[in-house]
Amino acid sequence: MKIIKKPAKIKNIKEERIFKRLQREIAMLPAPSFNNPEHAQPVEVPSVVVPSSVQMATNDLHKEAKQDKPFEQQIILSQPAPKIEVIASIKKPNKASIIKRIMGYLKKYWYLMALTILFAFVNSAFEVLIPLFIGKAVDNVVSAGAVNFQGILNNIIVIAICVLGFALFKWLTSKVANDMSYKIEKNLRID
Predict the structure, then answer these.
(1) What is the pTM of this model?
(2) Which residue of 55, 76, 119, 154 shows the fewest CB atoms closer than 10 Å?
(3) Hey, which residues does 141 pair with through a beta bridge?
């Protein structure tokens, strides 16, 4: 006595039904509208790559769907359905692999990354020094008659240099970081 295996299309009836229901629900979504961007959806139902067992079974369902009349009521999702990635067998990359890939692009521009970090450090140093020298300038005013004008002038000159250094290194940090990100993005697009 031979044991007959069930065909693949019968084995995945549940998946076929879910897939077919999702297609109907996608078809029922409203058309794109500039006045209502929250409900903008593609006009046509996008084609989905499905496993071969589901594809064989859906061919039969497509024949039946052509004979059916269109739905007059909207279908409301009453229960959670599997994600389209599961039905279409799409494998999502994990975050670690994405970070590794970006680090590979970053290796080419390590010198720009080092400059960005250096400029940011110098920028922070100037930012910290400004209030320090403002405090020293205030300390030169002892009382109404006892003011050390030379000490105040020296501190104002140092504060001005710190402000100029802060502005320059802030600009350099953003310039180098933007150049580096532009080059990395360009390489990503090319690849």
Answers:
(1) 0.48
(2) 76
(3) 147
